[in-house]
Amino acid sequence: MPSITRRELAGAGAAALVHLGGLARAASAADPDAKAGPTGGGQNGAVDFVGDGIPLSPAEYVALLARLTAGGVAADEYSRGGAVEALEAQFARLLGTEAAVFMPSGTLANHLAVRVLAGSRRRVAVQESSHLYNDSGDCAQTLSGLTLVPLAPGKATFTWEDVERLLERTASGRVATGVGAISVESPVRRLHNEAFDFAEMERISRAARERGVGLHLDGARLFAAAAVSGRSPAEYAALFDTVYVSLWKCFNAAGGAVLAGRRTLLAGMYDVRRMFGGALWNAWPYAAVASHFAEGYLERLRRAVAVSEELIGRLGSDPAFEARKIPNGTSVFFLRPRQADPERVRQRLAEERVTLPPPRDGAFWPRVNETLATSSAGTLVEAFRRAAAP
Fold this sequence. Notes:
Elements: H1 6-30, E1 47-48, H2 58-70, H3 82-95, E2 99-103, H4 106-118, E3 123-127, H5 131-134, H6 139-144, E4 147-151, H7 160-171, E5 179-185, H8 198-211, E6 214-218, H9 222-229, H10 233-237, E7 242-246, E8 257-261, H11 263-266, H12 269-275, H13 284-294, H14 297-316, E9 321-325, E10 333-337, H15 342-351, E11 354-355, H16 377-388
């Protein structure tokens, strides 16, 4: 049997995807309820309040890949070159940074960022509610010997005074220890995507740089925060040495992340990524889709945010609902039917192609994503009123 090189195998895989994509498109054309593809939102005004992005089924994802590869997508090798390199350059431009590196996950991106920033000063200040502190399996502690010090329990924002007390306490102990990095998550997932106060973020950035303390931004949903605040992602990134952005949360890739920052900081990151087992042989299927959705994303999401704000205002004044924004919130809001059974409301809305997450304690926490840009506040209000009717 003749041998086949890995590059030939990758090419064969791409050809198979094109074939499968044709099948998926045919199935989608036969199904009038199939969701639309990549340029924003669902077909026929379908709105999904569940996730940060557009919910693509495996068939829809393959169909999109087929369309993108038909236009020419260059394969990478071990997550270097090709579509991955193009994605890195694209996100460095969007974030206003010198460089960016693809990472297979946000967990690894956050870990390697605080690892390189901390250096020999092994303590890292984090929010008590942050993903890095709660949801990463103690990776930084176990694999890199770092000590994460939680600040501001239950709050999205800690202050420079919180950090300064930590610096003083660690420096004045019987054995002095150094704080090498500060990690800020914004928006904070565990607090319904509440944003870190921007003025305090600026203050911490100035003071930390005066002290020579590294700064990392866990900006998994940074673009959602930017769409709400009106600031550019680059305005946030400029306050930090490194910033991580998820590729699947808002940009609909099947996985992946980007870690961006100064070129000198990231120069050796490809080797560190490999050391931690993060050099995927082929990452182009993630890169191609994320790159596609990233173009024009902020504009599309800002339109969706405008729809959501009108929707919240109108439902908030409707006797059938209680609706309100989260203080300092971004892409999540609170919604509660006053009389109707929440699960019945959810089921009725599903019949009108509006998807809500399961209720918790009688209320919903809907997420705003670009599917809202395919509808209008008026259309959605009427659908919610019908769903809550006796």
